[in-house]
Amino acid sequence: MALSFFYENPSTWADWLIARARSPGERSQRLELMTSIWTDLDPTTAGRWLIAQGLDGSAASAMWRFATSIAANHPAEAVAWAQSIPDENMRQRTLVQVEDRIRQQHPHRADELLNGATHSQP
């Protein structure tokens, strides 16, 4: 039932769920869950929503999830997201995973995509 409501109005449901997080850890888990579900449906809107939540340390795992999810279809954006993760360990882990995914999906253009990726925040 809750997921059917999410599919009808993802932004409202995601905002409601995040607003009710009782701790930074719970917020982090909920951000990652919403990002995971939403990115498959509409990555552009999911990315905008994630930015609006504030890209602090509690968003690092959701940012990892988003970057690795979009790497195959939006490699430059995935690298930019990975580079913007505030937690150093999560950032490095994500960059390795994004690079691996890009090399799998775009073997002939991987170096170009990885070297030409923007270094700005998403």
Could you explain the architecture of this structure?
- The protein has 122 residues and is mainly α.
- The protein has one domain.
- The chain is 74% helix and 0% strand.
- The chain contains eight helices and no strands.
- The protein has helices at 2-8, 10-19, 24-41, 43-52, 60-70, 75-83, 88-105, 110-116.
- α3 runs antiparallel to α4 (43-52).
- It is globular, with a radius of gyration of 15 Å.
- The mean pLDDT is 86.
SSE topology sketch:
Layout lengths: L1 H7 L1 H10 L4 H18 L1 H10 L7 H11 L4 H9 L4 H18 L4 H7 L6
Low-confidence stretches: none
Shape: globular
Distance from N terminus to C terminus (CA atoms, Å) equals 33 Å
| Number of β-strand runs | 0
Q: What's the quaternary structure here?
A: single chain
The percentage helix is over 70%
Mean pLDDT: 86
Radius of gyration: 15 Å
Which structural class should the secondary elements be placed in?
Answer: mainly alpha
| Main sheet record | none
Number of helices: 8
Taken in chain order, the helices and strands follow as HHHHHHHH
